[in-house]
Write a structure and sequence with these properties.
six-stranded mixed beta sheet; alpha/beta; Rossmann fold; about 240 residues
């Protein structure tokens, strides 16, 4: 049986991200609602891995615009609401149980809904900046449009064009998540932070590019976190 430290393999996105991984000050582990990758066992293992490798860990699950997204994709309003409630109830239970399992004291591993961060001033400031950049920064807008296109192309029937409403909801969802890609240390008051997810984060190529433009803060990192060899892939 693998130790908690060896349950996953982290691939830091840049050399500076690797420094943050070695420092092990703080990690954000994102958990998407309705994604079969995040089984109860997987989320528990993620929490255990985080606790074994970092001083502090925040498990954060997305709970914003979930019902709106289902409705925009064609579910009747009441069905969209019920589907969102069911998905969020499930992910909340898994994340809460995993945090408690990894750290019963609750002092090192914490569970949050993304919505709980929206009252924090640093989050609000970053989010407001992103909304402004959607209209004023062609590079950021092009990146967001490309991500929305990729998401909707996987959800819509072949040849079906996305509606304005679908695109607007996707942009809102993306901008709600993005502050954690940019500056988790400011939002959660930690010295540095590694944002861990099983796929390359949206905007990573933009945020970690050289030169001017919208960039992640100097103490914000990202790593692609995948099950170690021999661990079952539950997707």
């Amino acid at each position: 049986m693998k130790t908690a430290t060896a349950l996953f393999q982290a691939q830091p996105y840049t050399p500076q991200c690797e420094v943050m991984a070695r420092e092990g000050a703080h990690a954000v582990i994102g958990v998407s609602s309705g994604n079969s990758y995040f089984s109860a066992r997987r989320v528990t293992d993620l929490a255990r891995w985080g606790a074994a490798n970092f001083e502090q860990v925040d498990l954060i699950y997305t709970d914003l615009f979930v019902g709106e997204m289902f409705e925009a994709l064609g579910y009747p309003p009441e069905d969209a609401r019920r589907k969102a409630v069911k998905n969020l109830r499930g992910v909340r239970a898994k994340v809460t149980a995993a945090a408690k399992d990894a750290d019963p004291s609750g002092s090192r591993v914490r569970a949050h809904a993304l919505s709980a961060l929206t009252t924090i001033a640093a989050y609000q400031n970053i989010h407001t900046k992103l909304i402004t950049l959607l209209e004023g920064d062609p590079e950021f807008r092009a990146t967001c449009d490309s991500l929305v296109d990729a998401f909707l192309s996987a959800k819509l029937l072949h040849g079906q064009a996305a509606t304005r409403r679908q695109r607007d909801v996707c942009l809102k969802y993306l901008c709600a998540e993005a502050p954690l890609f940019l500056d988790t240390p400011a939002i959660l008051n930690v010295p540095s932070s590694l944002n861990c997810y099983h796929q390359l984060l949206p905007m990573a190529e933009l945020l970690y590019a050289r030169g001017p433009g919208l960039r992640a803060s100097r103490n914000q990192g990202h790593a692609v976190l995948t099950p170690a060899e021999g661990e079952p892939d539950e997707r």
